[in-house]
Amino acid sequence: MRSLIAGTGSYAPEKIVTNADLEKLVDTNDQWIVERTGIRERHVVADDQATSDLALEASRRALDAAGLDAKDVEMIVVGTVTPDYPFPSVGAVLQGKLGNRKAFAFDVSAACAGSLYALSVADRFVATGAVKNALVVGADALTRITDWTDRNTCILFGDGAGAMVLKPTDDPQRGIRAVRLHTDGSLVPILLQPGGGSRDPISEKVVREKSHYVKMNGREVFKVAVRSLEESCREVLADEKLTPGDVTWVIAHQANKRILDATLHRLEIPESKCWMNLEKYGNTSAASVPMTLDEANRAGWLKPGDTVLMMAIGGGMAWGASVVRW
Ligand SMILES: CC(C)(COP(=O)(O)OP(=O)(O)OC[C@H]1O[C@@H](n2cnc3c(N)ncnc32)[C@H](O)[C@@H]1OP(=O)(O)O)[C@@H](O)C(=O)NCCC(=O)NCCS
């Protein structure tokens, strides 16, 4: 038995911040941002919205698409690094909001790779028959931990949520075929939120030093991203005795257009096979992969039997890739 992605959903908050808006906040310009990242605008949470609110909308849409009643969900896993509260989990909050009391619910912390990690965990439960279905969500409100005076980071991030419903299948031609996950903890310093955790709890000093915001060495992240994504894609394709030429569609974490272009170039996969939406949303962290999957799915791209290659990388550094037969 394998698990199958039986429904997808996504949600982006209404408020849009354009590159022109950012020009008023920091020393940057639309041309620089578009050339270096491909991003033109991003969606940003309203004052009264938290990550679980985004997750709820995306989940409802995915459950609807899968024909599954929220009350019947047996497992909820949320990839996020911007939970509503340090604890409990967004998974627990989401379960409550869905009116579900059956599912066990928890979060997975793997930054922008969070939804791929969450998918991998839920896949094991569904494929072994431990649960009959699972709701996998990637949701982040990264703009809540973004320093709007730091032009190195504030141009990149946006908010959103994506969701996937997993069900079991006996069809040998379909389902999640392989997932490969990796972490390199020596790279923690190049992308992290240094303050506000147990190492340096929230305090006047943390706020003064702005260490509760994302800090990033963009050049280092860029290099690691291209190398790691290529390697894990080749690895997961080899697991299934496939080559990049066998891939029908690519669903990739939307970090930066240049990272994706370089990775696709190395894999010799044409850009036309990769759904791109970072122009509209920026880097939405864990939400990125399931939002992208949902857009491609609803646009009619994905047909039963198609080979879909998913990839993501984020702080940790944590990364991975997956092969799915749609
Ligand atoms: C952040 C990123 C876009 C910067 O692009 P880059 O080509 O590496 O740019 P650099 O950092 O080398 O900076 C080049 C110049 O632009 C300047 N610059 C940086 N940010 C700028 C901005 N927003 N607007 C205008 N100029 C900017 C720099 O100060 C630097 O100027 P200098 O040459 O006078 O020192 C790029 O490194 C990147 O995308 N990295 C990966 C980030 C990412 O994806 N993170 C999430 C992973 S999940």
TrEMBL record:
<dbReference type="GO" id="GO:0005737">
    <property type="term" value="C:cytoplasm"/>
</dbReference>
<comment type="function">
    <text>Catalyzes the condensation reaction of fatty acid synthesis by the addition to an acyl acceptor of two carbons from malonyl-ACP. Catalyzes the first condensation reaction which initiates fatty acid synthesis and may therefore play a role in governing the total rate of fatty acid production. Possesses both acetoacetyl-ACP synthase and acetyl transacylase activities. Its substrate specificity determines the biosynthesis of branched-chain and/or straight-chain of fatty acids.</text>
</comment>
<keyword id="KW-0275">Fatty acid biosynthesis</keyword>
<dbReference type="GO" id="GO:0006633">
    <property type="term" value="P:fatty acid biosynthetic process"/>
</dbReference>
<feature type="active site">
    <location>
        <position position="283"/>
    </location>
</feature>
<comment type="subunit">
    <text>Homodimer.</text>
</comment>
<comment type="pathway">
    <text>Lipid metabolism; fatty acid biosynthesis.</text>
</comment>
<keyword id="KW-0276">Fatty acid metabolism</keyword>
<comment type="similarity">
    <text>Belongs to the thiolase-like superfamily. FabH family.</text>
</comment>
<feature type="domain" description="Beta-ketoacyl-[acyl-carrier-protein] synthase III C-terminal">
    <location>
        <begin position="237"/>
        <end position="326"/>
    </location>
</feature>
<dbReference type="InterPro" id="IPR004655">
    <property type="entry name" value="FabH"/>
</dbReference>
<dbReference type="InterPro" id="IPR013751">
    <property type="entry name" value="ACP_syn_III_N"/>
</dbReference>
<dbReference type="InterPro" id="IPR013747">
    <property type="entry name" value="ACP_syn_III_C"/>
</dbReference>
<keyword id="KW-0511">Multifunctional enzyme</keyword>
<keyword id="KW-0963">Cytoplasm</keyword>
<keyword id="KW-0012">Acyltransferase</keyword>
<keyword id="KW-0443">Lipid metabolism</keyword>
<feature type="domain" description="Beta-ketoacyl-[acyl-carrier-protein] synthase III N-terminal">
    <location>
        <begin position="106"/>
        <end position="185"/>
    </location>
</feature>
<protein>
    <recommendedName>
        <fullName>Beta-ketoacyl-[acyl-carrier-protein] synthase III</fullName>
        <ecNumber>2.3.1.180</ecNumber>
    </recommendedName>
</protein>
<feature type="active site">
    <location>
        <position position="253"/>
    </location>
</feature>
<dbReference type="Pfam" id="PF08541">
    <property type="entry name" value="ACP_syn_III_C"/>
</dbReference>
<keyword id="KW-0444">Lipid biosynthesis</keyword>
<feature type="region of interest" description="ACP-binding">
    <location>
        <begin position="254"/>
        <end position="258"/>
    </location>
</feature>
<dbReference type="GO" id="GO:0033818">
    <property type="term" value="F:beta-ketoacyl-acyl-carrier-protein synthase III activity"/>
</dbReference>
<feature type="active site">
    <location>
        <position position="112"/>
    </location>
</feature>
<dbReference type="Pfam" id="PF08545">
    <property type="entry name" value="ACP_syn_III"/>
</dbReference>
<keyword id="KW-0808">Transferase</keyword>
<dbReference type="InterPro" id="IPR016039">
    <property type="entry name" value="Thiolase-like"/>
</dbReference>
<dbReference type="GO" id="GO:0004315">
    <property type="term" value="F:3-oxoacyl-[acyl-carrier-protein] synthase activity"/>
</dbReference>
